[in-house]
Amino acid sequence: LSFILAFSDSRWYNRNLYALLFALASLATLWALAERQDLLIVYQVVIYCSLLFFSCMICHGELYQLRPPADQLTTFYLMSSLGGAFGGVFVNFFAPALFNGYWEFYLGWLMTMLILVIRLFPRWVGEYKRQTQAVALSFVVGTLLMLGLNQGGEQLSADRNFYGVVRTIELDDNTLAMIHGITIHGIQYKDNPTLPTTYFAPDSGVGVLLSNYPKDNQPAKVAVLGLGIGTLAAYGNAGDDYLLYEINQIAIDLAEGEGGYFSFLEDSQANIEVIAGDARISLENEYNANGSHNFDVIVLDTFSSDSVPVHLVTKQAFDLYLANLKADGVIAANISNQHIDLQPVFYQIAKEFGLTIIRIDNIPDEPDEYLSIWMLMAKNPESLNIPKLQERAITYETYSTDVALFTDDYSNLFQILR
What we know:
The chain folds into two domains: 148 residues, no CATH class; 223 residues, Vaccinia Virus protein VP39 (Rossmann fold), CATH 3.40.50. The chain has 14 helices and eleven strands. A hairpin with a 2-residue loop joins β2 and β3. The protein is elongated.
């Protein structure tokens, strides 16, 4: 859009106006980055898209004003196209391999600032060329270092792949955390490494369920979709089978002990198996090859980050889950999310399949616990008749929603934005 506007008519681009708009968007972006944990996702999208648009208008507007005479336009447009193609290749293939963070975002932002300075003050830049280059380089390096060091703790590791940036942070002398993007996916204490923490604390919905189910104290077979650092493995007892599904290889490596940071999987008494790949595809392949797993519990823990895998919460996905669940089994879904309210989605799923559904909220009174919201669904109502669950259960007799049932052909995340 910015390319079309800038090259269709020079009146679309006014350097001074866009410099002002870019400055305002930059200030808003700095604020959004500082407040991103609590800022509504709608505001974040508007702010970041505004910065992107104004940056593109500046780059394309200046490119148009620097176009050569008519006899050189063919080469000019060819080079412009090659530059765009190279930028796409760099961001998609080279940046993930070279950077362990989204440094290309900050580099692009800073380079747009430098372009504006050079174009707004060409005489000053020309007179003080070396000084300008030194100041610009120092500014870029200093800003990147500042952003890199501002991690809210000592960064022990950082890796990036297609699924984003995963960092290991030492929050204090006793606490290690794995952070994917800006979402904490697990905390482990050095002095108490088997204590389940965050959304999976003993008082959470899933904590109470796994501590009291199956009721006959027989070995349990549990599926966990979404590994994190393997915290739920802490509930595994001798003879239990825990199958943990995870698509991100970096998370798998950390949970299995790479770097020596996390040990929930190693410390668990249960038989642990980690399955790499998309959980739904893996479950479907296993079902087609060997029939039902007959799980006692299926835990869905893939919805707490900024990116929700909708294909794991559709009618067809639940067809698969229920086919792999015992008749008296339970599905537990972690719907703790700052930006998206998945409660109506699971309510419609439960209604479609005739499942009994309750919600368990955990308001933490310990620093190792997080506010968590778990929805528990069962074919057999007796499966949820656990005193410690029932005394805190929120039921859905009077609940209603306008959100339609999610299927593989239909979903609407805008309806469930907070």
